[in-house]
Amino acid sequence: MEFRQRYADGGFDRVAERREDQAWLAARLSTAETRIHPISRGRSLIADAERPLALSPGELGETADAILLGVDGGDVCHFAIDLSNVDDGETAQAYGASWHDLRDVAAELPHRDAAILAFARGMVHWHGSHRFCGVCGGETASQRAGHMRRCLTADCGRMHFPRTDPAVITLVTDGDRCLLARRAIWPAGRRSTIAGFVEPGETLEDAVRREILEEVGVSTGAVAYQGSQPWPFPSSLMMGFRAAATDSAITVDGDEIAEADWYHRDEIPKALATGDLKLPPVDSISFWLVNTWLNGG
After folding, report:
1. Which of 24, 86, 99, 162 is most exposed, with the fewest beta carbons within 10 Å of its own?
2. How many angstroms from the chain centroid is the CA of residue 237?
3. pLDDT in tens, 107-155
4. Average pLDDT of 55-69?
5. Alpha-carbon distance 12 to 70, whole Å?
6. Mean pLDDT, range 189-207, rounded to an integer
7. What is 255-272 written as a DSSP string?
8. Which pLDDT belongs to residue 61?
9. End-to-end Cα separation, the chain, in angstroms
10. In CATH terms, is domain 165-294 a member of 3.40.50.300?
11. Strand pairing partners for 224?
12. Distance in angstroms (rounded) separating the CA atoms of residues 235 and 165
């Protein structure tokens, strides 16, 4: 079963071929139908009815730093813009909206709106963290409609492109049992799957086995890919797996993981009903991994 999640939409056209078409970009940024999505400190403007607020170029005024996102099925062009340097309260009041973290409202948004806001959030974060060249330290400038930054130092000129951090997230199974763990910073009862970043020189499968062994001390054999999810909090790509345990003894690392246990398929619904077990939020691939296994997928 394909993972239908909140932060991606394969049908959204990113129009990469238009990123250097200055005439086309100028025309889109002078059209009232164009939608510009404001982002401030990772948050989006949401209107009263839990509707994302997108502004027209005329409403926004200054669009020089707008980042091209793409065109939806109705031929409406979408951009993102960083308003972190503008007073949040004044902006919200001016447009009759309020600032919200995307994760707090994603479940209530239409699928495409959540995907566009995730894209906007990720791009704005990348620009904010790459204002200077990682090679020479010189200032960088946005190019290609926001999809590249170039170092302005004459003898450097390095081009920098948006990046995401690859991470693996895995449901470990042992027959009719799955392993769920609680991170040390989480409240009692909350459990999730095992996750971690892929290191240089690793395959995804190697990263899965290493993270499981490091965090809960369980060795695994067969590893099967299940699906992926962009996770712009701030800039990860979560690749979901299921891994079969070859031993069942658990030894938590005591650092990242505070507790871990095996849960029988029949036990989980009862624990959820009593509140003894809390799964990850429904917008996450972790929830999908558990729920799919729980329902026999």
Report:
1. 86
2. 7
3. 888 889 999 999 999 999 999 999 999 999 999 999 999 999 999 999 9
4. 93
5. 7
6. 98
7. SSEEEEEEEETTHHHHHH
8. 84
9. 8
10. no
11. 242
12. 6
